Amino acid sequence: AEVILATVETDVRVDAAERLLEGHDSGAGLFHLVLRATAQALRDFPLLRSFRRGGRLRRWREIGLAYTLVDPERDYRLVTPVVERADGLSLEDLAGECMALSLEAYRGELAQEKLLGGCFTVSMLTGLEVTRFTALQNQFQSAVLAVGSPRERVVRQAEGSLAAARFVTLTLSYDHGVCEGFYAGQFLTQLKQSLEEPERAAS
User: Fold this and answer.
1) How many other C-beta atoms lie within 10 A of the C-beta of residue 191?
2) Do 148 and 130 form a contact (C-beta atoms < 8 A)?
3) Which among 119, 130, 178, 191 is least buried, having the fewest CB atoms inside 10 angstroms?
4) Does pTM top 0.90 for this prediction?
C-alpha cells in the first residue's frame, strides 16, 4: 500500500542528558541515548513498528532498531545497520553495538543480514548544522525519527531569570494509514519526557 506521509515534531531540552553522558563511562553520546529511549518507547507503541503490505497490517515481533550512516568513501551512500533487540540492551551495550556496526560499514565489511530486520529507523545528520529535517520511511517500516543537531536558545527559568539551554528537534514521519496523528504525538511526547529525564533512558 502507498505510504500516506504525515509528520509530528517536538523540541527536547537536552542539557541534563548531555551532563549525564559527560559523567558516563559507557562511551555513549546523545544519539545513543535517543536510540535507547526510542527502542524502549516502541514497546508501548506497536503500530509504529508495523507496516502495511498486501492490504494487511503486519507487525514486527522484535524491536530491531535501524540507524542511518553516510559513507563519504562511497559517494555519501546511505546505509542503515540494524541493532537487534535494541530495547533489551543497556546504554553501554547499545553504544558498543553501534560502534561495531559502523566500523564494519565504513570498512565495507557489513554483511547484508545486518541491514535487515529493522522495525523503525532513527536518522541524524551528524556533523551538519541542520536543526530539523524530515526523513522518509524504509521498506517494511511505517515510521522514522529525524534528530536535528543540538542548538542553544534562551529560556526563562522558573524564578524568572533568563538562561541559555540546549535543544534538539525530533521529527517523526509516519504512515497515516497505519496510525493517527494523536497516536504518533503520544509516542513523541513519551520520548521527549524520557530524554528530559535522562536517568530513565540511561538506566
Assistant:
1) 23
2) yes
3) 130
4) yes
